[in-house]
Amino acid sequence: MESSYASHRIPFILLTNGGGKTEEQRVSDISKYLDVPLDTDMFVQSHTPFAQLVDGYDGAPPLKNKCVLVLGGEGSQCRNVAKRYGFTNVITPGDLITAYPSLWPVANRQLYTSHAQSLPYPIISDPDFDTDKEQRLRIDAIFVFHDPRDWALDTQIILDLLLSHQGYLGTLSPENGNADLPNRGYQQDGQPRLYFSNPDLWWASEYHLDRLGQGGFREAFEGVWNAVTGGQAEGVQLKKKVFGKPSYETYSFAERKLDAHRKMLLGGKGMSQSNNPASDIQGANDYISPSGTDWISILVKTGVYKHGKPEHEPKIIATDVKSAVQWALEHSGWPEPPSLD
Hints:
The protein is an alpha/beta fold.
């Protein structure tokens, strides 16, 4: 398979809503499993586009030297990923609950002691925040890198920050509930921006039924947010940015990666094969390429989708990845498509 791909110079990237490890780790694992040489330029996982925010993106200021909160994943893996992207000041819920156990009194702090790190500054303990704020902890952005392991703790911390004054943990914004401001004053007082990396409600695991993913956590948090703020009934929305398939930002980021590899060899066509109609297929169908690329969605039966009418109709349904790739090669008019056996 390796020699066939090399000799035919077939450009491709791998785009996944998975994450939780560095791109180098994931590429090494996949390369060994598939017996195909890969590098990080050919791979995009759910949080890879977060790297754009280090130097500023889509109107957001640069975050390279700002304090960012990273949630999800095992131990310090997502902290390490964020630092590889260029974020220099990264904290986690484990750091916070270890330093301030009363932040969420029922948390199992033993889960965090092995990887917790010291905070750069203490939090504000005076609810009137009449103190030297320059020497207190301020969070400038919240990133959900991977599926949270402790939904309750992470929900409490995100809620505290979105209700805070300018991202200072331990404060409450005086603008919350102000009907004279947009969104009734919520998230109008310099609170940190909230970013999710993966909208998937479900994912396929070794268990025989699909399991809740990061999208489940987001929906749960929005339920808490609505209960606290009054939600849409009171004209309040949760302001957030969701990356990952099917978002436009993720497909645009992936297309730039693919363009760098293919150098127009496919004559303006892109193939997207996946196993989740609710994210992958929707994203490929909806994406409008700035460069005129025609994205063709292929749904395989080896993941979340098994049978029946999919939620979002693909261009093609294939039995597995092998048959999907073979169809893509033949459909694109690739001369003498290589055998995938």
